[in-house]
Amino acid sequence: MNDNKNASMAMAANADGTVNAGNADAALGTKTPAKKKSSGALLGAAFLMATSAIGPGFLTQTSSFTGQHQASFGFVILASVILAAIAQLNIWRVLCATGLRGQDIANKVLPGLGYFLSALIVLGGLVFNIGNVGGGALGFNTLLGIPTTVGYVLTGAIAIAVFLSKNAKGVMDTLVKILGGVMIAVIFVVILIVKPPVGDAVVNTFAPSTGYSALFPAILTLLGGTVGGYITFSGAHRLIDAGMTGESKMKDVTKSSVTGILIAALVRVFLFLAVLGVVAKGATLDSANPAADAFRQGAGELGYRFAGLVLLCAAVTSVIGAAYTSVSFLKTFNKSIADHENYWVIGFIAVSTLVMIISGSPAALLIIAGAVNGLILPISLGISLIASQKKSIMGANYKHPTVLLVLGIIVVIISAYVGVKSLRNFSKLFG
Predict the structure, then answer these.
(1) Is the alpha carbon torsion for 64, 66, 70, 73 positive or negative?
(2) How many whole angstroms from its chain centre is CA 401?
(3) DSSP one-letter string for 187-251
(4) Residues 326, 125: contact at Cβ < 8 Å?
(5) Is the four-CA dihedral 391, 395, 396, 399 of positive or negative sign?
(6) Could you give the 3-state DSSP secondary structure of residue 384?
(7) Where are the beta strands (DSSP E) in 69-129?
(8) 173 CB contacts (<8 Å, ≥6 apart)?
(9) CA 18 to CA 110: how far, in whole Å?
(10) Alpha-carbon span 420 to 224, nearest angstrom
(11) d(CA 225, CA 310)
């Protein structure tokens, strides 16, 4: 054993005979603080992306569609996860290979395009954040019976507290991992209580009894909700902030991206099974709050409280993700924003909270944001695919995988169709 130790230390020695502690750790197979920090950032980025996607709207969509399509909704989840993974892998790879954020890539593709993309992201992020604050208040009310106005303030205060910390990004990484884990654990407990028909769900995931064409609208809706708007950029921008850039980091970036998609998919699958265990027995869900109603019908008052906890975790993490990512689209345009990033994020959250308190219901704003959000994915993915073919942006030696390029183009076409369709929602404001 001593011989092995001596050999390891010898391998860690510098040319001048001194021993480098970091090299010694590497030779002995232990993680240095830098490696631990990198691993934490990679997992934190994955959870940030996943929990940004898992907001109040995510819970409502999944529960509503499960009530509508029952076991066949499994196919919708499978298809949307595949499409989301294609979009995510393309965008994260281009951004992290260059070390440039989405707005900077866009400006290199076409001068001024980055400002347009940033305007879309920040507008959509702000309005959805208002809705996320509302979701947090509903979570507090369901869980503890706290009045909604107080819930608005508490939700905003929790998110703001994260960015008051000197190590805000580290706290953010830790919090989204904890709250994401809580959501997974709580929903899993409900699954055990309601005992869903898992075998039927598995069969319908690959051969839906409703037929494939009937599920297409749900697939398109879930695609926008999983990687639309600011969501797809959240993890990539976090990795850029952590210095995880360059072609040598592509393996880690890909792993983090896929992990984020799988975490979001796991929560969606668990929620699907929990709700399926209720609707498969003939229950009809309350359209106003289908997730909470499913939990209540399946697991009684305890299930209802669990739904409140899940909703609260989903809302808080989405508020954090939306605020952080939206401000990250502004900070390269102005040095003052970059130097005082945390204060801008706090201001973003404070404005969202204040608007929610004053308006009480951001219904009209959410319709606008939904339409804007539907347009962002084809634009952002299209920009990334164009950039991936430009050596002036990617570097002379970079080669973007052809498979990702081709599949990415297909997703651009599909998501563009969704975006155009979402514009019709504007008519609801004037009808």
Answers:
(1) positive
(2) 24
(3) HHHHHHHH---HHHHHHHHHS-TT-SGGGHHHHHHHHHHHHSTTHHHHHHHHHHHTT--SGGGHH
(4) yes
(5) negative
(6) helix
(7) none
(8) 40, 41, 43, 44, 45, 47, 48, 238
(9) 51
(10) 12
(11) 18
CATH homologous superfamily, domain 31-430: Amino acid/polyamine transporter I (1.20.1740.10)
- The domains of the chain are located at 31-430
pTM value > 0.70: yes
Residues 283-330 pLDDT 10s: 888 887 888 899 999 989 999 999 999 999 999 999 999 999 999 999
Q: Where on the phi/psi map is residue 319: left (φ > 0), alpha (ψ -120 to 50), or beta?
A: alpha
In DSSP terms, 19 is beta-bridged to 13
Q: What's the rounded Cα separation, in Å, for the pair 245 and 67?
A: 43
Q: Is 21 helix (H, G, I), strand (E, B) or coil?
A: helix
CA dihedral 226, 332, 247, 40 (to 10 degrees): -60
Return the closest-CA partner of residue 375 out of 208, 224, 152. 224
Helix (H, G, I), strand (E, B) or coil at 259: helix
pLDDT digits (tens, 9 = 90+) for 396-415: 889 999 999 999 999 999 88
